[in-house]
C-alpha cells in the first residue's frame, strides 16, 4: 500500500509541475505579438486544406505536413478543426484551474472521438512540441539549466522515445486494434493511479477540513535536502560523473551518467508511447530519485521537453504519417485560451473544490479507457465478449468521460463570467 501511495503522490507532483510549465508557456505565447503572429501562420495550411477548391492543392497538402496520405483523411474539414479546439479548451481549463492533469485527457478524448491511438499519440506529441518551441522560456531560465545534466539526460530520452515510437508502430502494423489496446492499457494504469490517489487525497482533505490550494510551491525547494535514495544513487561513482547544483553544495553535487541515461530513457519511453511529452515524469525523478533541486529541475525540464517531444513527434510519428496536423493546431489554440481562463478561476474557487474536480477529471479519463478495453480485447479474441457488449461498454465510457469534462468546462466558464469583475479587481 505504501508503494502505491508514494507512486501516486509522485505522479501528482509531476503533473502539477508539468501544468505549471503549460501555464508559463501559454502566458509567454499570448504576451508576445510576434509569437501570436507565428501561431497564425501555422494555421494557414489548415485554411488552405479546409477551404481551397483546387484539388491539386488538397492532394499535395498531406505530403507537405506529414507522411502518408492514408493517415490524413480529414485535414480539410473545418468541423474537425473546431472539435479539436474544443478538446484543447477542455484540457486547458483542467490544467489552468486544477493545476495538474489536463494533458492526460487529450489522447483519451481523441481516441473516444474515433482517432486511432497511434495517431492520437503522435498528434499530442506534435501539439506539445509546437507549444514548447513557440513558448520556450529557456533564455530566461538558462541560469537554472544544467547543460551537462540535460545533454546526458537527452541521450537516454532519445533512446527511450525511439523505443516507444517503434513499439507503437510495430503493434499498429501487426493489428491497429492491438495498438489501440496497448495504448489504452497504459493510460488506464497511469490514470488509475493518479485518479485513486487524488480522490483519496481529496476525501482526506475534506474530512479534516483542509482548504489549501493545489497551486503554488510545494512548501520548500525540493531537492535541497537529499533523501535516502538520492544519497545512495549519488554515492555510486561510475565515471564519468555529471556535476550540478553548484550553488547548493561546495563543488556541486555529482551523479553517474548511467542513472541520467536510464532516467531519460524512462521519460522518453513514456513520451513515445503516451504522447504526453514526458514532463510529468521528469520532475519526480529528478527531485525525489536523483536529488536534483527543484530550481535546476524546472529549467532542465523545459529544455528536455523541447527536444524529447520534438524528436519523438518528428522522427517517430510525423515521417510515418501518424500526425493529425489540423487537430494539433486546434488543440494548441484551444488550450492557450483554456489555461488562462482556468488559472483565473482559481482565484475565486476554494482549493478543496479544485481537488475534487481534479480527482473527478482524472477518474473520468480512467473510466473512459478501462471501459474501452474489453471491446478491443474481444475484437482480438483475447477475452470472450460479444461485439455488442464491447461497443456498449465503450459507449458508456465515452459518455461518462465527455459528460464529466463538459460539465467541468461549463462550470469553469460560468464561474469565470460570474466573477469576472472580482477577478479584474484582484488583478489590478
Automatic annotation (TrEMBL):
GO terms for cellular component: plasma membrane. Keywords: Cell membrane, Membrane, Transmembrane, Transmembrane helix. It is a multi-pass membrane protein. It is found in: Cell membrane; Membrane. It comes from the Bacteria. The chain crosses the membrane at residues 36-54, 74-106, 145-167, 179-199, 254-273, 285-307, 319-345, 357-376, 396-417. Signal peptide: none annotated. Pfam families: TauE. Belongs to the 4-toluene sulfonate uptake permease (TSUP) (TC 2.A.102) family. This is Probable membrane transporter protein.
Amino acid at each position: 500500500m505504501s508503494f502505491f501511495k508514494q507512486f501516486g503522490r509522485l505522479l501528482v507532483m509531476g503533473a502539477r509541475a508539468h501544468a505549471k510549465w503549460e501555464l508559463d508557456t501559454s502566458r509567454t505565447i499570448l504576451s508576445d505579438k510576434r509569437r501570436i503572429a507565428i501561431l497564425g501562420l501555422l494555421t494557414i495550411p489548415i485554411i488552405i486544406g479546409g477551404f481551397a477548391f483546387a484539388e491539386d492543392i488538397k492532394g499535395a497538402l498531406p505530403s507537405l505536413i506529414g507522411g502518408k496520405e492514408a493517415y490524413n483523411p480529414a485535414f480539410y474539414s473545418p468541423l474537425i478543426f473546431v472539435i479539436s479546439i474544443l478538446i484543447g479548451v477542455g484540457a486547458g481549463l483542467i490544467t489552468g484551474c486544477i493545476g495538474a492533469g489536463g494533458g492526460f485527457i487529450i489522447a483519451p478524448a481523441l481516441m473516444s472521438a474515433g482517432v486511432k491511438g497511434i495517431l492520437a499519440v503522435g498528434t499530442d506529441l506534435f501539439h506539445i512540441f509546437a507549444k514548447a518551441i513557440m513558448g520556450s522560456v529557456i533564455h530566461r531560465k538558462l541560469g537554472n539549466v544544467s547543460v551537462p545534466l540535460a545533454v546526458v539526460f537527452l541521450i537516454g530520452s532519445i533512446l527511450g522515445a525511439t523505443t516507444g515510437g517503434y513499439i507503437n508502430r510495430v503493434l499498429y502494423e501487426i493489428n491497429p486494434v492491438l495498438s489501440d489496446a496497448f495504448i489504452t492499457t497504459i493510460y488506464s494504469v497511469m490514470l488509475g493511479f493518479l485518479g485513486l490517489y487524488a480522490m483519496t487525497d481529496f476525501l482526506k482533505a475534506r474530512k479534516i477540513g483542509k482548504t489549501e490550494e493545489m497551486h503554488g510551491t510545494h512548501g520548500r525547494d525540493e531537492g535541497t535536502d537529499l533523501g535516502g535514495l538520492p544519497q545512495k544513487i549519488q554515492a555510486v561513482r561510475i565515471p564519468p560523473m555529471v556535476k550540478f547544483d553548484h550553488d547548493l553544495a561546495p563543488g556541486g553535487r555529482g551523479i553517474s551518467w548511467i542513472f541520467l541515461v536510464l532516467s531519460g530513457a524512462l521519460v522518453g519511453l513514456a513520451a513515445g508511447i503516451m504522447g504526453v511529452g514526458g514532463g510529468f515524469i521528469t520532475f519526480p525523478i529528478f527531485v525525489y530519485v536523483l536529488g536534483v533541486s527543484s530550481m535546476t529541475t524546472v529549467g532542465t525540464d523545459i529544455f528536455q521537453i523541447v527536444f524529447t517531444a520534438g524528436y519523438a513527434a518528428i522522427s517517430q510519428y510525423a515521417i510515418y504519417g501518424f500526425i493529425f496536423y489540423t487537430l494539433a493546431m486546434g488543440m494548441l489554440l484551444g488550450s492557450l485560451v483554456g489555461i488562462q481562463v482556468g488559472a483565473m478561476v482559481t482565484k475565486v474557487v476554494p482549493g478543496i473544490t479544485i481537488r475534487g474536480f481534479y480527482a473527478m477529471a482524472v477518474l473520468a479519463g480512467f473510466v473512459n479507457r478501462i471501459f474501452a478495453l474489453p471491446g478491443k480485447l474481444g475484437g482480438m479474441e483475447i477475452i470472450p465478449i460479444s461485439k455488442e457488449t464491447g461497443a456498449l461498454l465503450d459507449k458508456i465510457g465515452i459518455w461518462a468521460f465527455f459528460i464529466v469534462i463538459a460539465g467541468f468546462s461549463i462550470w469553469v466558464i460560468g464561474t469565470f463570467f460570474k466573477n469576472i469583475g472580482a477577478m479584474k479587481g484582484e488583478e489590478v
